[in-house]
Amino acid sequence: MNRTLLFLLILLSCYNAFSQISDPESDKQIIRTAADLKSGNSQDVLTSFYQLAIKDLSADGNTFQFQSSLFAIKAKTDSTIWVDTAYLRQTFARNFVVGADVALDSNFRFKSNSLSFKYAIINKRDKTTFDYAPYLGFYSQEYQRIKIAAVEAYRKEHPDLPRESLDSLRDFFDYDLDISQGKLPADFVKLLQDSINKSTVFKGVEISKFKQLIPTFYDSISALVSNKPLLTAELKLTSDADKVLFAAINANAEFLKGIVNPNKPMNLELDIKASFDAMDDLASDAKDLNRQVASLSAGLNWIIIKSHSNQKSILELKAAGNFNYVFDGLYKGEDQSYLSFDGTLRLRVTDDIWIPVDVEYDPVSGNVFGFLNITSNFDWLGKKKS
What we know:
Layout: H1 2-19, H2 26-36, H3 40-45, E1 50-55, E2 62-69, H4 70-75, H5 84-88, H6 91-95, E3 96-104, E4 110-123, H7 133-157, H8 163-174, H9 179-182, H10 186-197, H11 207-210, H12 213-225, E5 230-240, E6 248-258, E7 267-279, E8 291-306, E9 313-328, E10 337-348, E11 353-362, E12 367-372, E13 374-378
Antiparallel strand pairs: 1-2, 1-13, 2-3, 3-4, 4-5, 5-6, 6-7, 7-8, 8-9, 9-10, 10-11, 11-12, 11-13
Helix pairs in contact: 7-8, 7-10, 7-12
């Protein structure tokens, strides 16, 4: 009964994910873009909306996995959640992820299923709620100073100028107008260039590029946010084909932190994970979670290639070393503590779809294992291609 329930939960979640299509309003588009700019490794640690994965394609069987943030689930029934003030109140929902998976053998017979619950205890890399004001304040103030100085100087040279004419000059700064669209007077252009050249921030910048710099500063700061720390805690409950409700329990915590300036062509993320597993001993008839294993993993995720146009991660390589310690349920011939190494090569083939290839190495046996996966992070919003 329990495995049927879990499988229905997966099907229901997938149905809800695909059954409704929303019109991408501006707030949704901003939030979606922030999710797209996350590294593939970061989305695996804490998915923004939905994640559907097929794992171990090259092994004896497959695992089908679905994850969803609580925010994504709530947004399906409450459109007001996208309003900025309501969105900011959804801290718990944005940081809480539920997941379900089903494992099948090579003959597509049921092996196990799981439910997982994950929460971001620390999440400093959410660009949608980050306060940019302290960082952009200086540049914005200097921008306003140049605007006021140029308009005031022009007013003094033309004391009889109507108020409407001065307002049209201010529109150049406040709206998306270039010099030709704004039809700026030639003498005002000269005064504006003089004001720019007197600025320590914008000195030497041409007027045609002047207004483009504020978004550039924003993008640079936004990239820095992706380096900030993320700490998650997860509980995963697994049942097996013998209808044992809790055949395995996993508790883990994972920490992610960027360590190289993300505005560079490449980047590195520190990834540390501590995990504890309690499970039935497969080598005996014991059904009391009598095998208990703790592990500590430390590695780096190397973002090798980014898109030149929007800084999206394209190719990543994660390598980690793992220390494992068996507290109870030691197998015959097994060392109580041992080291292993693993790596994941991720290739982004579309905005949504990643192909991760996992490789594990056991230095004791000398065996190397490889697993091919497909992962899709999606959000139903009707994406605008960039």
